[in-house]
C-alpha cells in the first residue's frame, strides 16, 4: 500500500512532465490498480504481514532500473530525471530474527529463481511478530513454523508468480515506457521541430504581418490610387459621355447634312449632266476662242509694244511740254512787252438811275422815270439829257474814244471842241466785267509766270473804280480782284501738269492821308505805324505788321474783300466816303517752284510774282478841294491825294524818260506812300495797267477830259523791258 504513492509520485514526475498527459497516465493507473488488487489479496491471506511493515524497513527498496534510453533521454534533455519503476521484492529476513526462530540452512526454502529467493516477507513477518515463542511450545512452534514455512513458500511462490507476472507487466510497462519515451522523444523532436517551425512560422508570421501591413498600406495606396483612378475614369467617362453626346449631335447634324448633301448631289448630278453637255459645247467654243485668243495675244503683244512706245512718247512729250512751257512764258512776255509794259484801258460806266436824281434831270422830277415801259423810254431820254457826248469810233479794235464838248466863248459864241483819245482798249458803258477781265487776264498769267503786275483804277469819284476792281455781289458783276484771284488759282492748278507747284498769300492795305492801314488787321485805323521794306536782292516788298493771309481758295478772297469793306465803313465819317479819299491796294503774292511731273524730275526753278490791284482815290479833288479850301481836314486830304496822284504821274513820267533816254534817271518813288509801296511793281521789270474810269455824265465832262489827258500821258510812257523775277535754286 505504501508503494502506490511512490509509483504514483514517480509516474507524474517521470512521464507527465515530458509526455502527453492522457495515455501514460491511464496506463500507470491501470497497472497500479492491478497492484492494489494483488496487495489486497495478500492482506487477506496474512494480515500480520502487512505491507506497511515493509515500508517501515530502512532498507531502501531497489528501484526499477530505468532503461538506458530513458535515462539518457531525460538526462540529455536536462529535465528532472524520473524515478525508475522498482522491481517488487520480497521482504528480506533479518539475521536477528533468523537466528532466533529457525536455522538458516534448514529453514531456507529450496533455491528458486533469483526473484523468488529474495523475498523478505517471511522475515518481515517473523521479525515483526508480536509474540515470542516460549521454549515449551517449540514443537508446535516448529509445526507451526513449518506450516507457516510452507504457507510462506506457497505465498512466496504465489508471490514469485506474482512477481514474475509483475516483472512481465513491468517489462511490458518498461517497453511501453520506452515506447512512450521514444514516442516522447519523437514527440519532443516533433515538438522542437514544431517549436522551431512555430518560431519560423512566428517569424514568418511577423514577416507576413509586416508584409500584410505593407500590403495593407500598399493596398490602401492602391485603393486610393484606384479611387482616384476611378474618379479620373469617372471624369473621363463623363467627358467621353459628353463627347459622345456632342458626337452624337454632330453625327445627327452630319446625317442631316449628308441627307441634304445627298439631295444636293442628286440635284447636282442632274445639273452636272446638263453642265457636262454645256461644257462639251463650251469646250468646242473654247477651242474656237482659244485660236481667237492666240490671235488677240499676238495683237496684245503688238499693242504692248506700241503702248510702251507711246508711253515713251508721252514722257518725251512731258519733257517737251515743260520745255515748251518755258518757251510759252517767253513768248507770252514778249507779247506783253509788245503791247507795252504800261498800258491804259479806258472804261466809261453807264448812266445810273441814281444819276437822274443826283444831277437833276428834268425827267426825274416828273417822277415818271422809274415806272413801266413808258418809264424806260423816259429813262433813255433822261440819260441822253445827262450824259456827255462820248463817241467810240473804233468799233473793230475798241481803242479810241472821242469826246465832244461845247463851251461858250467870251463873246457868247458857242465853241465846239472834239477830243480824240487812243488807249490800249476802250470799254463802252455796255461792257461787262468779264470783257474787261479778258484783257486783264493776260497780266494775271504774267504774274503766275513770275512778273510783278500793277493794275490801277484811276478816275474821279463815282466813276466806277471800286466797281471795276471789286465789283458787285453777283458772279457776273464780280470785279477784277476776285476774277484775277480765280484766274491765278485756276492757272496754278493747270500748271501742276507742267511740274509747277504754287502757294499764294494776300494782303489788303489802305493809304489815307499818307498813312498805311491794314484792311485785314485788327488794329484801329490811323493808329498803328506800318513801314514799307524793299528787298533789293529778291525785289520783294514787305509792309511791317500787316496781316498776310495764306490764300487757299477764291471764295476766301471774297470774304477778305468784304472784311476790308466793312472795316472801311466803320472808319468812314458821316460826311465823307472814306473809299473816295483813300487808295486801297490789294496785293496777291504768288510763289511757284518747278517740282516736276510724275516720273519726270522738275527743274527746281522758283519764281515769285505779285499782282497789285489798286483802287485810287477820287482824282477830281485835285481841282475841287483847292477851290473850296474851307475845311482844313478836307484840304489836307485833298493835298495828300493830289500829292500821291501827281507823284504817281511823276514816277510814270520819269520811268518813261528813263526808258527813252536810258541812263541813271532818278525815279521819285519816295514822294508818296503809294509810289514807294508800288516801287517794285512800277519799275522796269514790271507790267502796269491803268484802267481809266470815266463818268458818263455831262456834269463830269471836264473831270473826264482831265483824266483822259492824264491817262494819255501815262499811256504814252514806255516803261523799260519787263524782267522776269526768276531764280534757279
Ligand atoms: N460799269 C458799271 N456798270 C454798272 N454800274 C456801275 C458801273 N460802274 C460803276 N457803277 C456804279 O456806279 C456807282 C459808283 O461806282 P463806284 O463806287 O465804283 O465809283 P468809285 O469811282 O469807286 O467812287 P469812289 O471814288 O467814291 O469810291 C456804284 O453804284 C456802282 O455800282
Provide a brief overview of the structure.
The protein is of the alpha+beta class.
Key words describing this protein structure:
alpha+beta, 58% helix, 17 strands, disordered C terminus, disordered N terminus, three-stranded antiparallel beta sheet, 21 helices, binds adenosine-5'-triphosphate, Kinesin
Report on the structure:
The protein has helices at 3-16, 23-45, 51-56, 68-77, 95-101, 104-107, 114-117, 121-127, 138-339, 353-358, 362-366, 372-386, 433-448, 465-469, 480-495, 554-571, 621-628, 632-661, 673-677, 679-682, 701-715; strands spanning 342-348, 389-391, 400-408, 414-422, 425-427, 452-459, 500-512, 515-518, 532-534, 541-543, 549-551, 583-594, 596-597, 600-601, 605-615, 686-694, 726-728. Residues 1-28, 44-131, 365-372 and 722-729 have low confidence and may be disordered. The protein is α+β, with helices and mostly antiparallel strands and 729 residues long. The protein contains 21 helices and 17 strands. The protein folds into 3 domains: 3-127 and 141-190, no CATH class; 340-351 and 387-728, Kinesin (3-Layer(aba) Sandwich), CATH 3.40.850.10; 353-382, no CATH class. Strands 1, 5, 6, 7, 8, 11, 12, 15, 16 and 17 form a 10-stranded mixed sheet that branches. Strands 2-3-4 form a 3-stranded antiparallel sheet, with helices on one face. The longest helix is centred in the first third of the chain and has 202 residues, at 138-339. Residues 349-350, 352, 459, 461-467, 577, 579-580, 618, 693 line the site of adenosine-5'-triphosphate (ATP).
Amino acid at each position: 500500500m505504501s508503494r502506490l504513492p511512490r509509483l504514483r509520485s514517480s509516474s507524474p514526475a517521470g512521464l507527465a512532465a515530458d509526455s502527453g498527459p492522457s495515455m501514460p497516465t491511464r496506463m500507470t493507473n491501470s497497472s497500479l490498480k492491478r497492484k492494489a488488487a494483488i496487495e489486497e489479496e495478500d492482506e487477506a491471506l496474512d494480515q500480520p504481514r502487512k505491507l506497511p511493515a515493509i515500508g517501515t524497513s530502512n532498507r531502501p527498496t531497489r528501484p526499477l532500473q530505468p532503461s538506458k534510453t530513458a535515462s539518457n533521454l531525460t538526462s540529455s534533455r536536462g529535465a528532472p530525471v524520473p524515478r525508475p519503476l522498482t522491481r517488487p521484492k520480497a521482504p528480506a529476513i533479518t539475521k536477528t530474527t533468523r537466528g532466533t526462530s529457525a536455522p538458516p540452512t534448514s529453514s531456507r526454502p529450496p533455491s528458486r529463481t533469483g526473484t523468488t529467493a529474495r523475498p523478505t516477507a517471511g522475515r518481515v513477518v517473523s521479525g515483526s511478530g508480536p509474540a515470542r515463542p516460549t521454549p515449551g511450545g517449540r514443537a508446535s512452534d516448529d509445526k507451526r513454523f513449518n506450516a507457516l514455512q510452507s504457507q510462506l513458500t506457497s505465498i512466496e511462490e504465489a508471490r514469485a508468480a506474482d512477481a514474475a507476472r509483475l516483472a512481465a507487466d513491468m517489462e511490458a510497462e518498461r517497453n511501453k515506457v520506452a515506447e512512450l519515451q521514444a514516442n516522447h522523444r519523437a514527440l519532443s523532436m516533433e515538438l522542437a521541430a514544431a517549436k522551431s517551425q512555430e518560431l519560423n512560422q512566428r517569424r514568418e508570421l511577423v514577416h507576413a504581418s509586416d508584409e500584410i501591413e505593407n500590403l495593407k498600406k500598399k493596398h490602401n495606396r492602391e485603393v486610393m490610387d484606384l479611387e482616384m483612378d476611378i474618379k479620373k475614369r469617372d471624369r473621363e467617362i463623363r467627358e467621353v459621355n459628353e463627347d459622345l453626346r456632342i458626337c452624337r449631335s454632330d453625327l445627327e447634324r452630319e446625317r442631316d447634312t449628308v441627307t441634304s448633301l445627298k439631295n444636293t448631289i442628286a440635284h447636282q448630278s442632274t445639273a452636272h449632266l446638263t453642265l457636262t453637255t454645256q461644257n462639251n459645247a463650251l469646250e468646242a467654243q473654247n477651242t474656237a476662242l482659244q485660236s481667237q485668243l492666240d490671235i488677240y495675244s499676238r495683237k496684245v503683244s503688238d499693242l504692248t509694244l506700241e503702248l510702251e512706245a507711246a508711253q515713251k512718247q508721252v514722257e518725251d512729250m512731258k519733257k517737251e511740254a515743260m520745255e515748251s512751257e518755258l518757251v510759252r512764258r517767253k513768248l507770252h512776255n514778249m507779247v506783253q512787252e509788245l503791247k507795252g509794259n504800261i498800258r491804259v484801258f479806258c472804261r466809261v460806266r453807264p448812266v445810273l438811275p441814281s444819276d437822274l436824281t443826283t444831277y437833276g434831270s428834268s425827267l426825274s422830277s416828273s417822277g415818271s422815270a422809274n415806272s413801266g415801259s413808258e418809264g424806260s423810254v423816259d429813262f433813255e431820254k433822261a440819260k441822253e439829257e445827262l450824259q456827255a457826248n462820248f463817241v467810240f469810233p473804233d468799233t473793230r479794235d475798241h481803242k479810241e474814244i472821242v469826246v465832244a464838248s461845247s463851251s461858250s466863248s467870251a463873246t457868247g459864241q458857242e465853241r465846239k471842241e472834239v477830243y480824240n483819245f487812243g488807249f490800249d482798249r476802250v470799254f463802252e458803258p455796255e461792257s461787262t466785267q468779264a470783257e474787261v477781265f479778258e484783257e486783264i487776264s493776260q497780266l494775271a498769267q504774267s504774274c503766275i509766270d513770275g512778273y510783278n503786275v500793277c493794275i490801277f483804277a484811276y478816275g474821279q469819284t463815282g466813276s466806277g473804280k471800286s466797281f471795276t476792281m471789286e465789283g458787285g455781289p453777283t458772279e457776273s458783276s464780280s470785279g477784277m480782284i476776285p476774277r484775277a484771284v480765280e484766274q491765278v488759282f485756276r492757272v496754278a492748278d493747270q500748271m501742276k501738269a507742267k511740274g509747277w507747284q504754287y502757294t499764294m498769300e494776300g494782303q489788303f492795305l489802305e493809304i489815307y492821308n499818307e498813312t498805311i492801314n491794314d484792311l485785314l488787321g485788327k488794329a484801329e485805323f490811323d493808329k498803328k505805324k506800318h513801314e514799307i521794306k524793299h528787298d533789293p536782292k529778291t525785289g520783294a516788298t514787305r509792309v511791317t505788321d500787316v496781316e498776310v493771309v495764306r490764300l487757299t481758295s477764291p471764295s476766301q478772297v471774297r470774304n477778305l474783300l468784304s472784311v476790308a469793306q466793312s472795316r472801311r465803313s466803320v472808319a468812314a465819317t458821316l460826311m465823307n466816303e472814306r473809299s473816295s479819299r483813300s487808295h486801297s491796294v490789294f496785293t496777291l503774292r504768288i510763289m511757284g517752284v518747278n517740282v516736276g511731273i510724275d516720273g519726270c524730275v522738275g527743274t527746281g526753278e522758283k519764281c515769285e510774282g505779285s499782282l497789285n490791284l489798286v483802287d485810287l482815290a477820287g482824282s477830281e479833288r485835285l481841282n475841287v478841294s483847292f477851290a473850296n479850301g474851307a475845311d482844313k481836314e478836307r484840304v489836307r486830304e485833298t493835298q495828300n491825294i493830289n500829292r500821291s496822284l501827281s507823284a504817281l504821274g511823276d514816277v510814270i513820267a520819269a520811268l518813261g524818260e528813263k526808258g527813252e533816254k536810258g541812263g541813271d534817271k532818278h525815279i521819285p518813288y519816295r514822294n508818296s506812300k503809294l509810289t514807294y509801296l508800288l516801287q517794285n511793281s512800277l519799275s522796269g521789270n514790271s507790267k502796269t495797267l491803268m484802267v481809266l474810269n470815266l463818268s458818263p455824265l455831262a456834269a463830269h465832262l471836264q473831270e473826264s477830259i482831265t483824266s483822259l489827258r492824264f491817262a494819255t500821258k501815262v499811256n504814252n510812257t514806255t516803261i523799260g523791258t519787263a524782267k522776269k523775277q526768276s531764280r534757279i535754286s
